[in-house]
Amino acid sequence: MSTEPVGGEVRDLVDRFISGQANERTRSAYAIDLGAFAAFVGEPAPEAVAELLGGGPDAARQLVLRYVLDLRRQGLAPATIDRRLSTLRALARDATDAGLVPWRLEPPTAHEVETAALAGTGAADSVHYLLPRHPSEIDRLDIQHYAIAAMQGANFLAPVEAPARVLDVGAGSGQWGFDVSEQFPDASVVGFDLVPGKLERPPRYRVVRGNLLQGLPFRDGRFDYVHQRLLVSGIPLQGWPAVVGELLRVAVDGGWIELVEGPLRVNGGGPATDRLTRVMGQLSASLGLDAEGAVFESLDGYLRSAGAGAVTRHDLSIPIGRWGGEVGSLAATDFRTGATRVCEVLQARSMLSAEDAHALIHGAQEEMEDYRMSYSYAVAIGRKPA
Predict the structure, then answer these.
(1) By the 8 A CB rule, do 98 and 13 touch?
(2) How many CB atoms lie within 10 A of CB 176?
(3) What confidence score (pLDDT) does residue 125 get?
(4) What is the pLDDT confidence band of residue 381, given thresholds at 50, 70 and 90?
(5) Is residue 378 a contact partner of residue 303, using CB atoms and an 8 Å limit?
(6) How far apart are CA 193 and CA 114, in angstroms?
(7) 377 and 318 Cβ atoms separated by less than 8 Å
(8) What confidence tens digit (pLDDT) does each residue in 214-225 have?
(9) Count of beta carbons in the 10 Å neighbourhood of residue 23
(10) Structural domains of the chain in order of their starting residue, each with its CATH number
(11) Is 296's pLDDT higher than 90?
(12) Is 336 within 8 Å of 235 (Cβ atoms)?
């Protein structure tokens, strides 16, 4: 069975797909939908469908994502867009059933479409952010969240009891705030980030979009508890004192601030991991980010310098690899996925070849078990003076 359908087979597939419909109205609708897709690709319908099927499932998904964004830009109604996607999905299903391709088309999710739309307008861009925007990033952030929560045995370590208002800065997928909403059902929880996170949210959770480097769009003394985690890959090294000052500003008098950050390096890595983290550090430095662990070392100091009191610091370590049980397996997935995304940036900047990237990631995965790798991070907690 070929994974690259030939032109004649695809032409027959398209003909059967339209003519095989018993209802004239359905035949007409399918022809219109395929015509619209062909116009987007810039080829006749059979050639456009061949392009959809010929590049593999990931390429097909990206092509459909670009198509959806184009339909949105045209101002088409959501129902029309859904119908055109359904037509492509049905045609791809027929191609699978006919043996032309060994996979089924998985259209992009609503979240992926929304994230891509934001990126296209520049709303999700940050010139300092180490990790590129990618549809899988939402899943990686969830995995990362569950690994940290399992390691800590709690969603947070600050002595927060019954907050009325909670702010999660750099909310990512939003899952941390979702769990806080469940723990404190009467609390109002705000997730602040460049992108909106997951679309299905608890009733008392809301999203505020913005760039932390431009300040927080909240009045002084608004939140009982302010949380920020793992933004070392997005905040320039020189910007940390001002950022922590903003977190303290929006906290109520007597409110708690919790910061969670780690260095770029891992503990116990072998030669592949060491080289991988070294080139990642070079990329971080080129973006003005911390590449030497200064933020990790200074986290509690930032809070004291901003004026927080009752500052405490907890140094923790997460195992990376199956040797570390469930937490280690989650951390391994987070590490592999994050490294893959960064390697894509390194390749685009000609800092690493595709062959080297593949070898380093594969080697690092083996070293997780052989060297029993781990990742250290710090939790710094402070209180705004009453």
Answers:
(1) yes
(2) 27
(3) 44
(4) very high
(5) no
(6) 14
(7) yes
(8) 889 898 999 999
(9) 9
(10) 7-108 (1.10.150), 137-383 (3.40.50.150)
(11) yes
(12) no
Residue with tokens 């619209």: 36
User: Residue 6 above 70 pLDDT?
Assistant: no
Greater confidence (32 vs 20) lies with 32
User: If we measure between CA atoms, which residue out of 19, 40, 48 comes closest to residue 31?
Assistant: 19
Strand runs (DSSP E) across 60-197, as ranges? 165-169, 188-193
Q: State yes or no: pLDDT of 127 exceeds 70.
A: no
Residue ranges of the alpha helices (H) in 167-225?
Answer: 175-183
The CA-CA-CA angle for residues 92, 97, 101, to 5°, reads: 60
Of 79, 51, 45, the residue nearest 66 (C-alpha): 51
3-state secondary structure of 199: coil
Task: Give yes or no for a contact between 117 and 72, defined as CB atoms under 8 angstroms apart.
Answer: yes
Question: What band does 330 get if pLDDT is binned at 50, 70 and 90?
Answer: very high
State the average pLDDT for the chain. Answer: 88
Distances in Å between the Cα of 278 and the Cα atoms of 190, 358, 369 are 36, 16, 20
CB 64, CB 37: distance < 8 Å: no
pTM (whole model) above 0.70: no
| Burial class (CB within 10 angstroms; exposed 0-12, middle 13-18, buried 19+) of 191 | buried
Per residue in 241-278, pLDDT (tens digit) is 999 999 999 999 999 999 999 998 899 989 999 999 99
Give the CA distances from residue 357 to residues 30, 283, 289, 322, in Å, rounded to whole numbers and listed in that order: 43, 14, 21, 22
User: Is the Cα torsion angle 181, 187, 191, 196 positive or negative in sign?
Assistant: positive
Calpha distance 130→133 (Å, rounded): 10
Dihedral (CA of 338, 341, 344, 345) sign? negative
When comparing pLDDT for 2 and 45, which is higher? 45
CA-CA distance, 105 to 148, in Å (whole number)?
34
Contacts of 62 (CB under 8 A, 6+ apart): none
d(CA 351, CA 106): 32
Which positions ≥6 away from 76 have C-beta within 8 Å?
Answer: none
- What the block records as the tokens of 125 is 């861009």
Question: For residues 324 and 78, which has the higher predicted lDDT (pLDDT)?
Answer: 324
Helix (H) / strand (E) element for 334: namely helix 325-348
Sign of CA dihedral 143, 149, 153, 154: negative
